[in-house]
Amino acid sequence: MSTVTATPGSAPVFSVDGLWKVFGPKAHRVPADPGLTALDPAELRSRTGCTAAVRDVSFDVRRGEVFVVMGLSGSGKSTLVRCLTRLIEPTAGTIAIDGEDVRAMDKARLRALRRHRAAMVFQHFGLLPHRTVLDNVAYGLEIQGVGRAERRERAAGVVAKVGLEGMEQRRPAQLSGGQRQRVGLARALAVDPEVLLFDEPFSALDPLIRRDMQEEVIRLHREEGRTMVFITHDLQEALRLGDRIALMRDGRVVQLGTPEEIVGSPADDYVRAFVRDVPREQVMTVRTAMRPAASAEEAGTGPAVRPDATVSEAIEAVARAGTSARVLDEGRCVGVVDSDALLSVVADAAPGGPAAGGPAPRTEPRAVDAPAEHREPSPAPAREEPTPAPTREEPTPAPTREEPV
Ligand SMILES: Nc1ncnc2c1ncn2[C@@H]1O[C@H](COP(=O)(O)OP(=O)(O)OP(=O)(O)O)[C@@H](O)[C@H]1O
């Protein structure tokens, strides 16, 4: 959903390096002891009584991106994100926000961080039952000491922004689950934080409302370009929302990349098994499939597609035209895609190998045996519903010969 482009060149919002969170007795000795860090989770537990919920994790959250933390239950997502604002105290490592050391912040500074700079939207919205929607949304501003008239005005603006206009005077009990979640979202937005942190905010919602809320987040992000960190255990949600995804397993980040990188070049068998059911043509872009134009004529004819058009969109364009398509980047032809190359992306085969610009060759997707101590019978992602195919962008209009898809 990269309509608001994250700016890789600019300083990151969050910068995390070598982060550990260990629960249990004498937790501090674990990150410092190579003999203990080498143990797998079950061995570590039996030897020390400790759980390493986050193990040596490093990443940056770039300004303006939606950074998704994904993984199965117990992989460490919530612990990691709570460490960012020290709702959970890290055991080792560094965390900076805009270059400022979070671990060195005193209580007042931390309070300001949580109130003004990095607001959390929780799964259980934590709404105050006796207050109206408007007063719930204004609550964060009240804590900040904003005067009544101003906070009500600002709250009313945010209530409208999340689609709750007309419900300002209702109480939480008079709302549906999805509407309550919107109130929680509005409350976080009202304080105008630099970063929104979402902790599985939609997992309690039914599939259609969940989808609505995902659209809402995409819309807000598109309109405001606000940096977001979003926890989910749902792969489809991660692919829909994430500019980049950190995939966690047993406290480690096993892969960090764009949805296309994760689906197209899984880092290991675990990730490969995780993404094996993803409709590749909806995630992979034509960049994966394109080749140089063979001739000036080929570069000058055929339907046009954007480099970031999905393979699925390009297949439609190629099928309609009955010829290969040109990949146009700001009016310049940067390559050509034909039906064979597009279909080989769908089939997960790399025509001509990586040298031809295709995805890295991959072994046949297969199930990976979960380690004995793992809670899940298989690393296939938990799904609550037959989820719709992941799309990273709005459905685009049918291509014409002139307009890139
Ligand atoms: N306070 C705690 N004390 C001991 N262990 C904990 C504590 N909190 C979390 N853990 C353990 O740390 C690991 C990571 O938990 P965490 O809640 O971060 O995972 P998660 O990926 O967010 O899971 P879920 O999707 O179920 O919320 C788990 O093994 C969990 O049991």
TrEMBL record:
Residues 351-405 are annotated as: Disordered. The keyword Lyase does not apply. CDD domains: ABC_Pro_Gly_Betaine. PROSITE patterns: ABC_TRANSPORTER_1, ABC_TRANSPORTER_2. Residues 39-275 form the ABC transporter domain. The keyword Repeat does not apply. Keywords: ATP-binding, CBS domain, Nucleotide-binding, Transport. Residues 363-405 have a biased composition (Basic and acidic residues). Pfam families: ABC_tran. One of its GO terms (biological process) is glycine betaine transport. Belongs to the ABC transporter superfamily. This is Glycine betaine/proline transport system ATP-binding protein. It comes from Streptomyces capillispiralis.
